[in-house]
Design brief:
mainly alpha; Potassium Channel Kv1.1, Chain A; three-stranded mixed sheet; 64% helix; elongated
Length: 235
């Protein structure tokens, strides 16, 4: 089936010879294939293969859904289209992938969000003032999504990001102050403390190296001074 499906963005607006399903969304028709949907979604799989009335239905209405969002979902699922996850569709796709149990898409979305956080690590080094504030607010909003949809890898990446700031800085943000529980804040603060301890150890080692270097230089100065005095006496 998948090889026969047109890969254009309008591929769901008309039926091909293998189409066996019409989704009705906002009174508009979306032409699809049960095999494709059942393959990626356990919800659709049960709907089509477990004796529900939808298993023999040619048309299925999806209430409370938006036409553009369902088309976007299908474009990301059909193997010959595979529209990438981006800033514009990620949040909508996350909600739909959760509802329909589409784990493969949910993982792609989490991977995309992790990339966003990872890139933010670098950009915050050159961001100050309002730009930095906006960046942290965006990351905190991502954290709420991570907790709602159980994106554990994303949450760990966000903890890593937030641990660059102390608790006093983060408490200035409403999301951090009002919506996050004490256990999460403890994880951030614990990692922050560890990083500070590591920095202190690193600074201590460098300081010791400098002290040793200074001591060696002092010995060299004393030695050279003594040699110079000895030469003066000879002369």
């Amino acid at each position: 089936i998948m090889d026969e499906i047109d890969d254009s963005s309008n591929s769901f607006s008309s039926a091909d010879e293998l189409c066996d399903l019409t989704l009705i969304v906002e009174n508009k028709k979306i032409y699809a294939h049960k095999a494709v949907l059942a393959k990626v979604s356990p919800v659709f799989n049960r709907m089509f293969c477990s004796g529900f009335k939808e298993s023999s239905a040619k048309e299925i209405t999806l209430p409370d859904k938006k036409y553009e969002e369902i088309v976007e979902l299908l474009q990301c699922l059909y193997p010959n289209i595979l529209k990438p996850v981006d800033a514009e569709n990620a949040q909508v796709l996350l909600s739909l992938s959760e509802e329909y149990g589409i784990l493969i898409l949910k993982k792609q979305i989490e991977k995309y969000f992790i990339t966003v956080v990872t890139n933010s690590h670098d950009s915050t080094k050159t961001n100050y003032g309002n730009a930095l504030k906006l960046k942290i607010e965006n990351i905190l909003n991502l954290l709420i999504l991570a907790q709602i949809y159980r994106l554990n890898k994303l949450e760990l990446e966000i903890i890593e990001f937030l641990s660059a700031y102390d608790d006093e800085q983060l408490e200035k943000y409403d999301v951090y102050k009002q919506q996050l529980d004490i256990d999460f804040k403890f994880k951030v603060l614990k990692l922050f403390s560890k990083k500070q301890q590591d920095k202190l150890k690193e600074k201590t080692i460098k300081l010791k190296e400098l002290e040793d270097k200074c001591t060696r230089q002092k010995f060299d100065i004393v030695r050279l001074t003594n040699e110079l005095d000895a030469l003066k006496h000879i002369v």
